[in-house]
Design a protein that fits this description.
Elements lengths: L2 E9 L4 H18 L3 E7 L5 E7 L5 H11 L2 H13 E10 L2
Antiparallel strand pairs: 1-3, 1-4, 2-3
Helix pairs in contact: 1-3
């Protein structure tokens, strides 16, 4: 079994291109360094929502440790406000593989 989050982010108008660039070039490497895996990324047809799946290995028990590592990184500390400036709303759903 794989533990993951289905994440749906509504991105502020005019920010989708910079969000996609920052996500893939800057955020993904930081998450991977923390042990997280970005499984896939999608955009809705209107290009207002960024939908993605991030996994944490075999158990959600790994989530806290990985998140502490990710959010404790120097990059996150220096850029958290820039990340939040892009996101209008977040929905996070716990999912597991079958």
């Amino acid at each position: 079994m794989k533990a993951a989050h289905l994440r749906i982010y509504t991105i502020n108008k005019g920010y989708i291109d910079s969000w996609i660039k920052m996500f893939h070039e800057e955020l993904v490497p930081i998450m991977e360094n923390a042990g997280m895996k970005v499984e896939s990324t999608w955009l809705n047809i209107e290009k207002s929502q960024f939908i993605w799946i991030r996994s944490y290995g075999e158990s959600f028990e790994n989530y806290d440790k990985m998140t502490t590592s990710y959010k404790g990184s120097e990059w996150w500390k220096n850029n958290v406000n820039r990340v939040k400036d892009h996101i209008a709303h977040m929905e996070v759903i716990d999912i597991t593989s079958t």
